[in-house]
Fold Peptidase A1 domain-containing protein.
Amino acid sequence: MVNSQIYFQCTLDTKIPNGLTLKMIHRDLPDSPIYRANLTDKERMKNYIKMSGAKVKFHEMSVVSKNKSSISIQPNRATIRPTMTEQYYQYMIQVRIGTFENEYPTSKLHHLNVDTGGGLIWTQCEAAGDKHFYQVDPLYPAYRSSTYQQFSCNNCPPDSKCKGNVCIIELKHDYNTKLSAIAAVEVFTLATEGGHSQSFSNIIFGCGIDMQDFKEKEGNFPDNKVSGTIGMGYGFYGFMEQTQLIFGGIFSYCLQPIITASYSSPITPMYLRFGNDALPQTKTGWMSTPVYRYQQSTSYYLILEAISVDSWKLNIDPYLFRINDDGSGGFVIDSGTTLTYIMKRAYLVFKLAIRNFIKQNNNNVHEMRKPELGYDLCYTRAKRPKTVNVPTVTFHFSNNADYVIPTTDTFFVSTSSGHRHPWEMYCMNFLPSDEMSYLGVFHHANKRIIYDTRNSLLHFKPADCSLEN
């Protein structure tokens, strides 16, 4: 059993510089353990929108319903997003867990989804019996690992409770989906580029023993290898909090646009960097804006002051993006949301501005009466010229930090050849939400983004992320 002296003593087991670089795997690239080669870009985008919509809807409802018994979720706890393959996540990493002295290899390989809005590290464990979702690889055999230690009931960590002589974390992120996990510590080993590895002792994680109503079934994803999540958000259980003394609360990534990529031309590797490896090599061209934690939320909140369409700054009250007294609202940067969501009152102004721009700058498109794929605004082009002019979108964050979304990312473009005359569909990559706004991972592409949690800053600059190495 774990004693109280171990709580914040995650240590680096190798004496090398305090930096780390991990390869990130996108769910829809061929090296993904849940890759489905038969899907078209339109089908992938439809899935992404469905994923994001479900996550946004429940997240908002959980916040505003915190005092209602109809939803048994506590928003001040480290929340997770449980459905592994059909919901929310775009990127994953490989980790090795545990110490198995009489076996080879001496640790167990697992794929964990990366979640910048989550505050828990967890994986399914062997003790779950039949109460787990489907995965190809064996469940983690925690009790065979010589470095696995459970917390005792007289020493349960925050937001866990004693049940059956162990400390249990119980978290809910859907009306029926629920995770129950044993609070424990273990050795996590992360493989870096170049064949090296770094091991971390005393990582607090959830050893999943009851995954209720998860959607994964063997027939849906027969090759699923995703077994859990690594939470990169704020909070006691998050990876950044636990490695604060090692990496200084700093991590970064530079993502490539996947949905528009040519799968015949392989995407170059993308990386998740920590500590010294995440620091910029040059000091020019960077924007910096405050990032903060609201109460005990695990999400990264930003202060949005205005939105521009092309060069036109919209007449939107910035208070629409502030957090309300009931905890709703605010603007979050989130890897668990695909598209960018703008709270409804501001979105109506934004959508009108986009419409006006398209109308004034094009005479070869028609607005679709029934947008496809779950989008809210789509156009078709069925005549010349072949070029459709679309605007840039700029989010003006506090500290004069302008986050520019280029024309290549403001609309999703799909070409149909099934008609006598081929036509193109242009759909706006922004959707409305009730109160909270989200900068989705689709709009993180081709930007180097650095999270500095110790100094409460988010740094970003445009970059060609295909050149990352």
Observations:
- The longest helix spans residues 41-64.
